[in-house]
Design brief:
Elements: H1 3-6, H2 10-18, E1 36-43, E2 79-84, E3 90-94, E4 110-117, E5 122-130, E6 156-161, E7 167-171, E8 176-180, E9 191-192, E10 217-222, E11 229-233, E12 244-251, E13 256-265, E14 272-278, E15 283-289, E16 300-306, E17 317-323, E18 327-328, E19 339-340, E20 346-354, E21 357-363, E22 380-386
Antiparallel strand pairs: 1-22, 2-3, 3-4, 4-5, 6-7, 7-8, 8-9, 10-11, 11-12, 12-13, 14-15, 15-16, 16-17, 18-19, 20-21, 21-22
Amino acid sequence: MRRSSILLGAAVLTVALAVPATARGGHPDGDFGRATLTGFASLPAETYVPHSEPSGALIGEGPFNGIAAPFRDQPVQGFSGIVNRHDGTFDVLSDNGYGNKANSADYLLRVHRVKPDTRSGKVEVLGGFNLSDPYRKVPFPLTRSDRVLTGADFDVESIVRVADGTYWAGDEFGPFLLHFSATGRLLEAPIALDGVQAPENPYLNGAQPTIGSSKGFEGLVRSVDGRRLHPLLEGSVAGDTPGDLRFSEFDPKSRAYTGKRFVYRLESTANAIGDAVAVDRHRFLVIERDGGQGDDARFKRIYLADSRDRDRDGVMDKTLVADLLDIANPKGVGGFGETFRFPFTTIEDVVLLDDRTLAVLNDNNFPFSSGRTPGKADDNEFITVRLTDRLHADPRALR
């Protein structure tokens, strides 16, 4: 999620559309057909953690899309990562707060447990836990003396749950990998990626950053066998081909990067990725999107990216599996028309439900985004879409 993306004007969108798309290959049947909406539920924008702390004092008074700040409690917003608990509930990761380090010091980083009901169209918040550093693993100063983590400390954008019940999260400020207990306590020092430093990196010490602001680990994938993690950068590293994103491999057992990586190439250098999830050993679903919202949204897609690089062009092969701006809705799910659009600035969550069904969530950038209705703060929406073809996923990807 990036607030700066919301401010992209028509000129930037024109550039995005003018850049030629890369050739896709590697899938014998070509791109999938038009996906179908099968479920819709939403959580109102103005949903807050009960009896929590005030938040939003640093964003100005507004109003923003009709909502004044600050807020009496912590907003339940900014879903930038998702974990399927396989019991009808999901863990969703809050974003860093309000878009940058400077205005998010009073936003507490949190994992929420939610239960979407596509029959009623509602999402229930069952609880959750804050992220914290009680064992003093972070070696640099934190915002709060109680070591509860805030959006001024890390910009967490992706999350996976591993076999022992602990969580790994990807951060953009380092970028760092962060390892948390099942209750959100940091278990070890943040793990950096050699040669990659964002402008917010606390160890920069006057050196030039090698990646753009908030262009760190937007995606984090657990391999289907659980033995590796694959963090995916949102931006290109200095010296790399613009639009090429490093998709690295990390060994949680040795706590080290293996040195192996793939390259995911954006369809336009103005695009960004939103999330990724493993389908099998070689294939990953990746959300790629532009920075537009509402009627200005032009590119919100999910690709199947294959690391085997069958056409040997040095980048992952890509197959389009769903255009999120052109989803068939013959049954009028959610009260929408025959064509359903998911026209949000940031779409940052995708998860496999079965071999042909995906769940997709937006990051509503509360209170700034208004992609669904102009002038109205976006809700957190949860949709399920059925693909025209099976993915032939490894069964472990569905567990």
